[in-house]
């Protein structure tokens, strides 16, 4: 038996080690910025929350003081709700807007973490969130690197360069400190990337009638991952658009028993994604609409589609079509404009990434890449028209195509602009991401927008 080719695996391992080093250095820089931010910040909610929960009177060690200060700098904005809900459960209807899957995982992880007697359980919840964010972010970096190697783009040497640059861009993502704090963004990215990674290896170029058991299992597991991602962030439901590629493939496949089974598995995968959205809604409906007295029923219970999530978004945060289009929000639209342009522009450019894909597979590769890009395009359009536009800078981190297209542009520019002194647009995007994350880290830790 031939020995494995170490010449091909060694560069990949070197890339993984380099990415891990970049990740550690970047995270240390962001945590230092957060720790050094002055005072309790613009808002004292975090200070009050931890002060109420801290009952121990024993004197803290230097390490415990350090840990408490760092935790207090990371529990800002929505992280306050994530940590509180994971600690005591959901008491109010607006708390059903915070990722049901993420807060439940946060509660489970906090139960197995060691805890110093002088630290309240809320601090443990915060540390659990920080742990989940860092581990999930690192894993999603590796998954994005592997994902590029499975895409129908470019030749193998060029693909490795693009994979490394794309994974590096994900490390320096515009989400910045949100990928270190107790937020759902890192976990969502990991689950979404894993779902795509499971999906991409079996989908393009293979007729549906040739899907074997292993392909069907991977297809089903991708639906599980997308469904779990949806329990963390509701925009995970957009990942179901990836399965539209199979509708295209259906027109190029023979109808037989295996084709029918494949279509059934695709349908089951889509149901799992919907379940990630509907299960929390069902639990909230049981709590507020079934087991509550008739005179205490909430208004959304009588709607034709009684969704607590849409009610909370509309009633408490005024989310809706063009509701955010006010003069006072113009700075937030300007802040989000680069990311909106990047998501839409790279999404539309994604089908052109195919290089060295022969014959009929070229068209199939284009369709598949467009289906992969469709979720980020829809996200950008909804951010522009419907919800709080500034959050697109952090929730875009869970979509791989924009990293890959920008990485391909940077890799191409290295070949054709080596002798030019000016940076490319892709390089400017990277510099903007880096600077934005640094500035945003200090603002976040000081409890100041943008959030």
From TrEMBL:
Pathway(s): Glycolipid biosynthesis; glycosylphosphatidylinositol-anchor biosynthesis
Signal sequence region: 1-36
Keyword tags: Endoplasmic reticulum, Glycosyltransferase, GPI-anchor biosynthesis, Membrane, Signal, Transferase, Transmembrane, Transmembrane helix
Chief location category: endoplasmic reticulum
Keyword Transferase: yes
Superkingdom: Eukaryota
Pfam family, one: Mannosyl_trans2
Transmembrane intervals: 122-148, 160-181, 187-204, 211-229, 263-283, 330-353, 365-387, 399-416, 428-447
Keyword NAD: no
Protein family: Belongs to the PIGV family.
Protein name, UniProt field: GPI mannosyltransferase 2
Lineage of the organism: Eukaryota, Fungi, Dikarya, Ascomycota, Pezizomycotina
